[in-house]
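Onboarding guide, step 5: your first structure request.
Type a short instruction followed by the sequence, for example:

Predict the 3D structure of this protein.
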Amino acid sequence: MPESSPEAARGAAPAGRGLYFDDLPVGQTFTSPARTVTEADIVLFAGVSGDYNPLHTDEVFAAQTVFRGRIAHGLLVQAVASGLAWQLGIFDGTIAALKEMVIRFQSPVMPGDTVRLELAVAEKDPEPSKRRGWVRFDSRVRNQRGDTVIDGSWTTLMHRKLDRKRELTREGASG
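The system replies with structure tokens like these:
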């Protein structure tokens, strides 16, 4: 991909193509597109999750708290971050499993805040096999002011290039 493309500027994979274990050097970073957390997101998440805590659903109550207004559910923001990661394209067809997410909530997200996800390849382990390896990403969600609202890490099991080539060869031979 040309270095001047928008995908290269964000560290994203070309559309429709994921990155393999072998394509992810330690230190590489990716920044997602932005997404605004809306009133509708918060109401719908309360309904889906059953979490009707008044910090999320009652403006009068929430106005009397340290937050001075309603805040988005932390797990809603983490779910949005997961979607933003998928939009990067780096996991498209190349992630075998998500093993672990470490989530530390740092600052509240208010209705109307806009967030971005930053993922940085922090550590790689070639285990468990020649076909796949573990990749740990440091993750950080920032709001429109650059404040960190969530930080943590994601541990993924990523396919290697050889593994995917063998699968495609087998699919072609059996079809």
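Each response can be followed by summary notes, for example: The first helix runs from residue 6 to 10.
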